[in-house]
Protein 1
Amino acid sequence: MTPPYLQTHKRQQADAALGEFLGEIKHIQRTADTEGEIVVPFDVEKVVWVLVERAQHSDEFTQLTALAWLHDFVGLFGNQLVAHFDHFLDAVLPCLSHPNQRMSQVAEGTNRTLLSLDTKAETFDVVATIRVIKRHLEVCTRRAPSEAETSTTGRSHRSGTPHSDYSDHSQEGSPRVQQGSLERTWLEALRWLSVLLDRNKNEVLSVLDDLLPLLFEATADGSEEVVLKALEVEASIAKGTSEFQRLVAALLDRFRGERGSELLRQRGSLVIRRLCALLGASKVFITVSTLLVREQDLPFASTMVQALNLILLTAPELKQPRDCLKGVYDLVRPSDGNSKSSSSEGHDQGQRDDPVELFESLYRSFSHSCCAVLSLCIHAGAYAHACEVLDCLGTKLEVTSNQLLELDRLVQVRNGRTSARTR
């Protein structure tokens, strides 16, 4: 067995030799920049494959050396390496969460450089890159990668290049990365998805069915920073596409069941408010209301409406819809048939926050909860109708403990500063 001091000496010698080799490559490239194109005297593609493999080695020194080389290669050859982009990203993403600070710093530097590359180039394989991002998201959300994608990532099955996997490095004997340490990888995988949505949107939307569950898992299980980044990606998907209602409906489904109820209690306000800020509060509320009107699960619809009502009354992101609804009942009273049309004429045709449309949409869905529709009527100035709702609640419906609690919350909210006008 080789004594430890000899192993250290050999490692130092190898490191020095590799350093000289890398220095020579840098010199050749600098010469090419000043004197014109010079052919590098080795196969860059094969070297990249070796570096990607070694960047996933169980030995940290080997891993760090390979990652440093990848960092320098991206800086030296830039867009010439776009064809190998998915391999680079596959090596860099797990290292972002490495407990070795030097390793994570080099990975972050490489990741920043990758962001500057031209992902619209003909040689850039969007599909392979999305596969890499998807598999790393699966790991971060504790979802087992599919068998097909465990055996191949993009072109790696054609070239023989191995791929990284946090939970299975049997060939290299790498230790497993603890779930709690994956936040940086999770955030950057989501960030890359956002980048590709901006640059290669059609390709990303083509695999939306596979990506949406992963985004919703991030919304449910990630840290607040991960949740916000996932919502940003979801908003990018919905914005300017026909996917808006589909995304809102899928997100609404995440609040179902026991786990969904817990998610609604813990993060429902954060999720809905952030989407309102990113996509427009009135548009989000009208879309959710439209879906809830058709909802067959009445207890679920009632729970959602109660949550929406509280957000509408208190959230800063909902200030514009709140202001829009003030006094709107005067525009929709049956006694004045011309009110609604005159209101519509007074608004820009392209304006989404039409008070009449907003009130009518919310009223239909808020009817799943007596307290919610009562609150809406009070806010909209429909005081006579609010009295009718109260009379119905007291004489025709059985008052439950949940309704009493909801009424108590409504009184508390109405005593707050945001409701001074209707107090």
Protein 2
Amino acid sequence: MQPTVNHSPDNTVITWPSIKIGVNAENIREAPYGLLADILVASTVSPETVHGPLRIGMMSQRDIRELTVDCQKRFGDLCDWSAIIPRSISLIVATYRAGNAPVVLADVPDPGEPQYLVPGFLLEDRNVFLSAYGGSAKSIIGMALAISVATGEPFAGMRPAKMGPALFLDWEDEADTQSYRMRAICAGYGLKEPPTNLYHWAMTTPLKEAQRAIRRFVRAHNVELVIIDSIGAAIGGELVKEDAAIQAMLACKGMSPVSRLIIAHVSKADADKASSERRTYGSGFFEFGARDVWQAHRAGDPGGSEITVAFTNTKNNHGQKEPFGLTIRFTPGTITLDRCDITCEPDLIAGLSQPDLICYVLKSDGEQTAKELSENTGLRPEILKANLFRLRKQERILRLPSNNGRQDVYSLNWTHPKNLEK
């Protein structure tokens, strides 16, 4: 008598066809003392058709014995339960531990170039981080992006490649707060009515425990974009622990094929550093598990009627994205978000990456020697030299021949797409 095994991200089902019994394991998760799961036993031939779900420690002999006795009492002598239950639990554990089966890469269809849900900003079906210090309008930016995908309105001048339902998973605010923000942003977009395909879910359980319910909702409603606000509140544990970060990022990845924007925080100590030096607060495995990381840096008072936020792409597995800015204006009942040139805001220049800072100085002040660039950017000569080498390889800058005994002069390459005037 051989069982069949069916495994998905949501559950593992062991079916015994000859005796018409199935053992279903859902919400499988690691615990300090082994694997836990919610086990449901079903029979199609007994008057008592279902037993469970029961939370079982699958490494606990006592739990397995108790489940065996319970099935004997409920279903009777349909089978040798002392053999079926332990064997089913063993297969569930082995299947979970094995994960996905290896594949021959040559048999996987060529996906072509990476696809974007919002070209220039948000990769399709990937974990993308947006990290910023408090008061940088992270939640408003996330809501504006969700409205953009739900309606097709451009976000920061970038029109979504696809329209579709969006889901805002919220561990920080309630529905009434987000309802006001949604309507104010819609007014700023010029929309007469709010979208009916934008869902808000006020979360009360950690992401790891809620992931199965989230996946079901995403599939049932054909969701294109999930906003997670914020990952620190979502994990329900200590942010500095590697295990908590890894499990959270796997839970986000498990929402595939939906796109995910994950909002995160930056510590006060990192807030005023250059974007290349800022890090998401907590374990490094948060950013390790993301395919793209955007750092947002605010200029202006957080309580004012207008702020400007600079976005720099500090991690990019599929090509560097150009920095951009958003000017966010608040008036009663309306929030507008307009793309802007971040170099117009002196407070934001310190947030630029080193290569972008060099290009900004060349763009603003014209041709310069390495000595002049070092003085005007504040970069040490050895750091500047490494950045100049990379920028020349990328063809973002040009080195002009020296004359009259002067040092070589560097100039912006105005034909490079990243250097074109906005």
